[in-house]
Amino acid sequence: MNEKAVLKLLEAAWFRRIWVLQEVAAARHIVVRCGPAEIDGYAFFSGLSALKLPYEDYPGLQPLVMSVAYLAKGAAFRSRCTTSQAGRSSLNICRLGQLVDMYHNHQATDDRDRIYALLGMSSDDPGTSGLLVDYDISWAKLFKQLVHSILGSVSVDTWDDKAVAVTRSKGCVLGIVSVVDSVIDRNGKQLLRVTSNSLIDPEADSPYWELEASAEPVEKGDLVCLLQGAKLPTIIRMHNDYWKIIVISAETPERLQVGMSDDQSELPRLQTVFPYDFLLVWDWDLCLDESQRGNEYEDLMGYLAPKAPQAGLQTDCQKITRFWNSGVIRRDVEVSKGEKNLQKAIEVLEHILGNTDSLPLAGLGRDHRMMGDDMKELQRIVDLIFKSEGGWTPLCLAAVTGSEAVARLLLDTGKVDPNVQDDWEETPLLKASEMGHERIVKLLLSTETIDPDARGDKYRRTPLAEAAKNGHEAIVKMLINTGKVEVNTTSFFRMTPLMHAAENGHTAVVELLLSTPEVEPDFGFHPEGTEYTALSLAVRNGHEEIVELLLGVGQVPLDLSYYKELRIPES
Q1: Distance between CA atoms of 545 and 515, rounded to whole angstroms?
Q2: Is 57 helix (H, G, I), strand (E, B) or coil?
Q3: Left (φ > 0), alpha (ψ -120 to 50) or beta: where does 542 sit?
Q4: How does pLDDT run across 23-36, given as a tens digit for each residue?
Q5: 143 CB burial (10 A radius; 0-12, 13-18, 19+)
Q6: Could you give the angle at the alpha carbon of 72 between the alpha carbons of 70 and 78, nearest 5°?
Q7: Res. 289: pLDDT tops 80
Q8: Which residues, in sequence order, are CB contacts of 499 under 8 Å at separation 6+?
Q9: With contact defined as beta carbons under 8 Å apart, do 497 and 468 qualify?
Q10: pTM tops 0.85, yes or no
Q11: CA 428 to chain centroid
């Protein structure tokens, strides 16, 4: 079998043209002919399904071919009569939303034909969808009508010069795609498993979903959401600060369906609360090769940016909103996955606050509202981030990113507990001490209610231990000078701050700790040599200066059996 020859054939324009689909869908017998050779259509496409062709070298080709195969293989079983709906004939293949998911990457000279060519195959009632062939309306208007027919009365932006729809909608998350069969089966189906979100039924088994091969394949980690007003779930993927629509209308497993008619949602009992704000981008011309996408993201955001005189600040505030909303959604599904976007939102806010006069900022976050468009926009952002459990999330994020202005803004409200723990049971002070953000540590220590020795997470780490471990001498000094930290406190692994500093070779921190009267240089000593000490850790890692410092204090025993194979410098 000459695989390259087969793939060359599959790259022919015939497989890419949108009007070909209607011809294939209407046919009751198909013959594939290339030059003098010909083969029965069912046999040809069944054979393609059986072959293990290297589609990975041909981005986007497999969905194109498999979607045509889905129609072609049904030709022999097709009725001689078409279905009549509202005075029109229909091939009644499936719902329009599913047809669009499968075929929107097919080509047409006129973009409007990418929708019109599918109407004759749709099982939807045109009287309900409002979609009729009309070449007097623009592509942008038609595309918007299509989105509304599938998702309901959502906010949609479209353009005549691009096949992109930007949608804003409230919604909920039904689950996350946990398993995907990368191989499209012989029937053109893609099998995936969706792990249900706790909002639905945390005890339920993860159901398998069987979808027609979509123009863009579903991947592990994609989210399944239900948008307010939509009849079927939508599968989406986070990209930068927005969500890409992968499958706009996904059929649910039979066990989730409740026998509703086509004009009703199939999921009415699963979710009636829509807590999240989604910014969704449906891009029909999406290049599957990320390296070829150029400035696509910047161009798209340029279309959405406000054109008002305050566009600079408003654009930044919109960016914060996008990063924050997308990060909150992702974090609520998988805690670690949303952190990056939430941090970006805080960093943008830090940039804004750093370039804004301090006097107007004094009122932000308090009960009264500032006047002026700029302050109203900033107040909206503060209100947005305060919705997160009283502001603890942004304070922890500010500690990680070193965003002093944001941390000060949050603390000045008097509404944020500086000792609050995040999802990992870590306090803002612990995070700032670990990252080496001196100004954040100083700010937090100036707060009256701060506990400088609070233990964080299951490993019982303290800010002093983390600062010592990472060599942040100035922070170690600040923490010791509070007089409120236990300098010999140990973590889950029985490691003191001195031991952390000695193990990692932080000479200046070791010297600082040894100058503190309360520090015990021989902490961990055991006559049988079964415990670590600062000296044993320094010797093991070859930190000679630290070994000399520890020996110099004259309080470190030297008769431990595990030293005998290591060279200890003479004191």
Answers
A1: 16
A2: helix
A3: left
A4: 888 888 888 888 88
A5: buried
A6: 100
A7: no
A8: 523, 524, 532, 533, 534, 537
A9: yes
A10: no
A11: 23
